[in-house]
Amino acid sequence: GGQFPGRRAPCGPYVLEQLHRRLDTFGQRAQHYHALVRRGGAGMGRQPDVLRHAARYTPNRLAATLGGDEITFGALDEQANRIAHTLREMGVGHGDRVAWWGDTSLEAVPIFFALAKLGAVFAPVNARLGPDEAAEVVGYARPRLVVVDDAHADLVQEIDAPMATHAHLADAATHASGSDIDAPGLDERDPHVIFFTSGSTGR
After folding, report:
1. Up-side HSE of residue 66: CA atoms within 13 Å toward CB?
2. pTM score of the predicted model
């Protein structure tokens, strides 16, 4: 029960597992600098603060790896800032949802943190879904924007939402500022990630 006809559960454990794999190395390597920034206080628990301080104190340390790809804290923070400025220019703000439909890669990590800096919500869509299934999940998410990678760029005809390819977003971000973004006051209770499971829809 709780599945689309003829398919395994569309999201749930797979999406959660893949996001954890993308960010697991980041989480492990972020722990080392807490001794350097003990004065950070309660705000240190939020993702933007974790990345911001890691980039300041250990910019050349690896933040995340996946296969042969890797990214340092400094590079990740700068990319997240550029993407955050770009997304804000595209109308994404505090509390807005942005869906990501793409294969497992480090491309999603700067977007994840850019949205954290904006106080927006990251909503990953299972990369293995077909166009109709993905469109249904996106419909439940009600995103301000959907970002798709190259592998899914030709499969978005059924999705009724503003769309941007990752290539377009990345290109626009190269022209944006790499400085930290002036974000609204964020609270630890602000939502940041939505994971859809088969139980989310009751299907």
Report:
1. 16
2. 0.76
Across the range 131-150, mean pLDDT stands at 94
Q: Would you mind telling me the total number of residues written for the chain in this entry?
A: 203
Average pLDDT over the chain reads 81
Residue 203 binned pLDDT confidence (cut-offs 50, 70, 90): low
Whether residue 94 has pLDDT greater than 90 = yes
Alpha carbons 64 and 73: distance in angstroms, whole number:
8
Contact 195, 14 (CB under 8 A): no
Pairing mode, if any, of strands 97-101 and 69-72? unpaired
How many of the other CB atoms lie within 10 Å of CB of 39?
A: 6
Q: Which residues contact 114 (CB under 8 A, 6 or more apart)?
A: 79, 80, 81, 82, 83, 84, 87
Give CA–CA dist 28/25, Å, rounded. Answer: 5
